[in-house]
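Problem 12. The chain below contains 348 residues. Write out its predicted structure in token notation.
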Amino acid sequence: MNNDKLIKLWKKSILLNSDKVEAPPICLEIIGEKRNSIFGTLGNFSIIAGKPKSRKTFFTSLLTGISLNNSSLLRVKASFPENKRKIIYFDTEQGRYHAKKVLKRISKIANIQDDEHHKNLQFILLRQYSPKERLEIIDYVISNSTNVGLVVIDGIKDVVNSINDEHEATKTATKLMEWTAKYDIHIITVLHQNKNDENIRGHLGSELENKAETVVKVAKISTSPDFSVVKPKSLRDTDFNDFSFGINEDNIPYEVGNIADTTKKKPEPSELNKTVHIDIIGKIYSKKRTYKYADLIQNIKKEFETEHYTYGVNKCKQILTYYIENEYIKKDEISKVYVSAFENDLPF
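Solution.
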């Protein structure tokens, strides 16, 4: 960019205390007993995350279906402005047969007959294209459509070649922010979580989670696998209470009460407060300054057990990986020992 362009963008980007800025219109909410939680506003994007077969697409179908006619179902309420009633649904993963099932489910939720198609819904299949082509098609469709309020990208990972490519992750996040701001729409993205923890997969997941307005988790209930639970992971608004759903004979989600209360599980490392980790690391390194790998794993296991979290060896290996990734513990590549990154803060 030349200086004139940079100066223009600079002036355009200044925010003054005297500027009048209105809150973005709320288009999706989670209904609560005392107050609703904002799920989505125009000008932002959200993430539905979960492990494979957790019923992420069922929940996404529900959000799409109620958005078509501004209705509510399963504690979720849609209220798009009249000039923002069109929806574009991009499916990057499924073939025509399974995608048609999703389309039929959305239509049933919106009370549309089998032989009809809602005038405000475009359902677009992108499985057959390359990641670059998918991104270009999405960009073209959004930029050449009018009165759009909601865009769903079921399989945002399929617009990149690698979920761990930092450049592609930043590019994708930038595109989502560009589309939502420029066209004043809300975008719902769907992403997988890691198999071994609750984190969203790859650099792409981390980058999008940092920029998203809302991130919710959908998970099968281990004690009742016919049901799934929806949980808040990170919201700019107030967290909502977990709620669970099953699937009826018409393939439509329905609420099943407080079944999620019976599925309390051991917290993932990322779900614990940083002070818990610092305290545990402090106790480990109060005994000695350096550890070999196996010895450190056993000490992590022992100290977590004193906190009433009984983890197996594999989980403790994941915890150590989490500590290294977050620079709580450092590995000396020369001596092959592990040292604490909190030496100045430790209680010894």
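Discussion. The chain has two domains: 21-262, 269-345. Students who got a different answer should revisit the alignment rule from Section 12.3.
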